[in-house]
Amino acid sequence: MSSPSSILGTVSHIYTYPLKGANGQKLARTSLTPFASIPNDRCLALLRAETIRANKWMEEKSTKENADIVLQTGEGKDPQHHSNKHLFHQLITDPQLGKYECVLTEEDFSNTERKKNNNEDGNINTSRRRQLSIIEAKTKTVVARCLNLDDEKERLVIETFFAERLETANTQNGIPKLVFADGISFANVGGKVKEHVLHIITKSTAREVYESIKVSSDSSNSDSSLEEFMMRFRANIIVDDTTSGGDPWKEFDWCGKKVRIGDVVLNINEPTIRCPSTRVVANNRGEVDEVIQPDVQIRTHFPDVEGSIFGREKIKLSDKGSYFGLYASCIKGGSIRIGDALTFV
Question: What angle separates helix 294-301 from helix 203-214, to the nearest 10 degrees?
Answer without folding.
Answer: 110
